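Following up on my earlier thread - several people asked me to post the actual chain instead of describing it. Fair enough. Here it is, all 441 residues.
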Amino acid sequence: MSLELEQEGLKIKEILEKYLNVEEIYCAATRTGFITRERKTDPFAFLFALVLGRFSQDTPSIVKYNRIYNSLSGKDHSIEYNSFYDRFDESCLSFINECLDICLNKAMSEASAELYGHLRKFKDLLIQDNSIVRIHPSFSEKYPATRTRSKAARIKIACLFSELTNSPAKVTLSAENTNDNKTLEIGPWIKDKLLLIDRGFFKHETFANIMENEGFFISRVKKTSKPRIKELGFDIPEHLREKCYGKTIFEAMEILKGRDIDANVTLNYPVQNSNGKRDLIPFELRFIAIYNEEKEDYHTYLTNLSREYKAKTVSDLYSLRWDIELLFKEMKSEYGLGKIKTKNEYLMEIAIKIPILTLIISRKLFWSVLELVDEKDKKDYRITKWARIFAENSIRILRTYFREIFPLDKENEWDWILRDLIRGTRTDRKKRKYLTMDCYH
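Reply from S.P.:
Thanks for posting it. Predicted structure:
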């Protein structure tokens, strides 16, 4: 493998300047009230300290972020810990939200490429899923946890993932006990796009809304669902097909045990009429069941994809849902999602959204760097390994970037290192006695 890397390292700087632009960050900080005329806090250094100020597997803390911020901001903007902690207020959350929106919008605006292979007819492949994060028990009333007898609080992070941009398209937060379907709002945005959803989002109205908005979907099937067989493919013997007509899908699966199934089925969804009552409106979908010989069980799907997509192709497309599992795993293991436990409600939400910002930057860098690799070698590079290496080098990236855009006087840089070492070492716990220090008196 040969990489022409001379001067190519500037790609890292270009991505940072694009997604965390200096002017846009200062404007966002002003609009949200995070900074005032005094501008004691440098919002640019503040945001970067949060997004890139940690190592892989490192447990994040406000103390560490404060140290990194002070090392970046210079003496005119340095802040003591208590004042730094107090900055995590409502205006700070608004600032972080606006920066996150800017990054999400930029990521989606880059979706000008086309999908390939079986996905070429779709504008994008989207995956919706949720992940649960534990937060401080003091939020148990607002964000109650489920399936626990003790006082606990958990937040449900709902993420709509774009396969085309390889980053989140939308992120919302709610209590753990929020029904999954309430975290997914179908609208015109689904037109000509393929959505992958699991059983948590299984709802007949959802399917009907997707079709009404000219979108496409693949969903796993709930065992409580009872679509009825309307038509079976000719690969099933006629005497077995006749037995299945009018049966529920799970009754048909017992009759056709061991065979793959590709059938048209009918479902109903309720619509409120002018009398205030609900009418059941029938509609058709395609039911697919792939038999797993090892487990002697079926993998079942409902979809509105045409038979242009064979049953095995539909199953393969659904397996792409694994990408969003990797996304949540990456944020939790490498970017500190869920590791800061605090009673400060604003900081709690900020600590959830910062890893999302870090992930967007990391993944944009990955695809940019991958362009430098020989085409035949690209398959050897894994985004999971990249996440670890990126996290290990994030502080290095941070300091290099700041030295370039805010160059310090070289005569003063060593003085600043010394000042950071002294400031970071000093403790406020003056009552505690350390015997080691007595040796030097």
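The chain has a mean pLDDT of 87. That should answer part of your original question.
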